[in-house]
């Protein structure tokens, strides 16, 4: 075969082998997914969610806090830095697929041994050795070792980007949950303050009746106990409100001291669509990150397998070397080298075998983690749907309890004023009414928190 044909055949074989990859054919690990979630019942469909899912609560204060979180939260800044580092690492790995060009120079003055083998009598003991070399190397990557390593690096960088999105989603959910708890605490504070005003009036009335010898000292003591108990409950609620405010300050990157949240009422409960298809979970960044890590582990198997095959690279050198002051690039001082370099370890004590087994184990672990992440996501959605359904039924019953307790309170107060019952009946009725109101408000707050948790569990709302 003529030399030109041999070169062409070698080039063609190199191109064909250059497209070879020893990584297994990639498939996303299978997880049995429901067509839809079982707990969804009939509801009024709503418009698609905005990208900022918390805007479904239509609360400008919450929206402002979320913007502050995105700008100043230190945990989010740390996640951004990790993502930048992952992208840089991916670029470093990908650079190995490009030709490597370098330059080196070495002006050296040295002395050679008097007993150096083959040294002639005319050679000086001390001499100068000046050199300058341009080098070029290119790994042909016949088995996809570098290609799979670069693909794994890109996948890990993508997973880090998904980790960043997951951190942002988690932090925004934490902020929304704390904010909704804060608003719930404020609503309970209003209830208790109203009750305290009523109890103060009731105490004044009871003391007047005691002075008129209509009521007993026991009635006065009960009225004072009821008032003090409500004030103690308000003190505890004030402390809880402060702790929630401090937690919000930390999330938005502000010192807790002196941080305030603008006053606003309890947001309205967003309306959930009639159906929630399970494919909404595909938007969840933690699932996307887990899938990318499975892909990276699959590519890692290809890298480990390629270590069993020869590595072939092309190398070239061009430079000059002198032993004195003559020019390095003079024709007589030039040197060059060009040719392929093949390398294959023959015995490594089982290193390659262990690396391949480790890569396969990493793939199995990543696949299992992916399935666990998907199953956990399905459970989280179902949990919040169940909680919302049960809270809705509980809210209806609690509303009936509030109405009945308020009616009983009014009857007891009227009958006590008329002298038909003791003040114990009034205290009992007022306590029941207050607890029912607080219970109803607590359910409303928990509904809001469960709604926010559901949106986060779906990857940020329920838009398709």
Secondary structure layout plus pairing:
Elements: H1 3-18, H2 60-72, H3 74-94, E1 100-105, E2 108-111, E3 126-139, H4 145-211, H5 217-251, H6 285-306, E4 311-322, E5 334-343, H7 351-417, H8 423-457
Antiparallel strand pairs: 1-3, 2-3, 3-4, 4-5
Helix pairs in contact: 2-4, 3-4, 4-5, 4-6, 4-8, 5-8, 6-7, 7-8
Uncertain regions spanning at least 5 consecutive residues: 6-13, 40-50
Largest sheet: 5 strands, antiparallel
**What is the H/E string?**
HHHEEEHHHEEHH
Distance between the ends: 63 Å
Gross morphology is: elongated
CATH superfamily: Outer membrane efflux proteins (OEP)
> Which value, in Å, is the CA radius of gyration?
38 Å
Quote the average pLDDT.
86
Under the CATH scheme, which class?
Answer: Mainly Alpha
Treating each run of at least 4 consecutive H or I residues as one helix, how many helices? 8
User: Structural class per helix/strand content?
Assistant: alpha+beta
Strand content: 5-15%
Which topology does CATH recognise?
Outer membrane efflux proteins (OEP)
Name given to the CATH architecture? Up-down Bundle
What is the percent of helical residues?
Answer: 55-70%
Total number of domains: 1
Q: Quick one: how many beta strands?
A: 5
Structure description:
- By secondary structure, the chain is of the alpha+beta class.
- It has a single domain (30-98, 143-311, 351-457), classed as Outer membrane efflux proteins (OEP) (Up-down Bundle).
- Helix content is 59%, strand content 10%.
- It is built from eight helices and five strands, in the order αααβββαααββαα.
- It has helices spanning 3-18, 60-72, 74-94, 145-211, 217-251, 285-306, 351-417, 423-457, and strands at residues 100-105, 108-111, 126-139, 311-322, 334-343.
- Strands 1, 2, 3, 4 and 5 form a five-stranded antiparallel β-sheet that branches.
């Amino acid at each position: 075969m003529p030399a030109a044909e041999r070169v062409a055949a070698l080039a063609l074989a190199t191109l064909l082998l250059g497209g070879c990859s020893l990584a297994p054919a990639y498939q996303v690990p299978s997880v049995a997914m429901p067509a839809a979630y079982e707990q969804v019942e009939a509801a009024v469909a709503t418009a698609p969610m905005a990208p900022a899912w918390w805007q479904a609560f239509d609360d400008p204060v919450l929206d402002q806090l979320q913007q502050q979180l995105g700008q100043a939260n230190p945990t989010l800044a740390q996640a951004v830095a990790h993502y930048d580092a992952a992208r840089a690492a991916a670029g470093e790995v990908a650079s190995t697929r490009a030709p490597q060009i370098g330059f080196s120079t070495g002006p050296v003055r040295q002395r050679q041994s008097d007993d150096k083998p083959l040294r002639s009598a005319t050679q000086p003991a001390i001499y100068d050795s000046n050199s300058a070399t341009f080098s070029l190397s290119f790994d042909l990557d016949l088995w996809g070792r570098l290609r799979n390593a670069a693909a794994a690096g890109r996948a890990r960088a993508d997973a880090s980007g998904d980790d960043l999105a997951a951190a942002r989603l988690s932090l925004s959910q934490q902020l929304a949950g704390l904010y909704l708890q804060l608003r719930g605490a404020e609503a309970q504070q209003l209830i208790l303050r109203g009750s305290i005003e009523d109890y103060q009036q009731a105490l004044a009335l009871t003391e007047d009746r005691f002075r008129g010898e209509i009521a007993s000292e026991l009635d006065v003591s009960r009225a004072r106990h009821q008032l003090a108990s409500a004030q103690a409950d308000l003190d505890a609620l004030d402390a809880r409100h402060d702790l929630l405010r401090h937690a919000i300050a930390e999330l938005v990157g502000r010192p807790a001291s002196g941080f305030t949240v603008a006053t606003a009422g309890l947001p309205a409960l967003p309306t959930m669509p009639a159906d929630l298809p399970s494919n909404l979970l595909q938007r969840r960044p933690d699932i996307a990150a887990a899938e990318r890590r499975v892909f990276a582990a699959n590519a890692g198997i290809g890298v480990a397998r390629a270590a069993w095959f020869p590595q072939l690279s092309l190398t070239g050198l061009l430079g000059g070397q002198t032993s004195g002051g003559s020019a390095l690039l003079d024709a007589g001082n030039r040197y060059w080298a060009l040719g392929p370099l093949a390398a294959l370890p023959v015995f490594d004590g089982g290193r390659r075998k262990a690396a391949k087994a480790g890569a396969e184990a990493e793939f199995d672990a990543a696949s299992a983690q992916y399935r666990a992440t998907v199953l956990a996501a399905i459970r989280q959605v179902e949990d919040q749907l169940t909680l919302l359904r049960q809270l809705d039924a509980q809210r209806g019953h609690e509303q009936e309890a509030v109405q009945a307790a308020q009616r009983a309170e009014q009857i007891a107060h009227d009958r006590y004023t008329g002298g038909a019952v003791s003040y114990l009946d009034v205290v009992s009725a007022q306590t029941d009414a207050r607890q029912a109101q607080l219970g109803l408000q607590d359910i409303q707050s928990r509904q809001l928190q469960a709604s926010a948790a559901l949106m986060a569990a779906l990857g940020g709302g329920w838009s398709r």
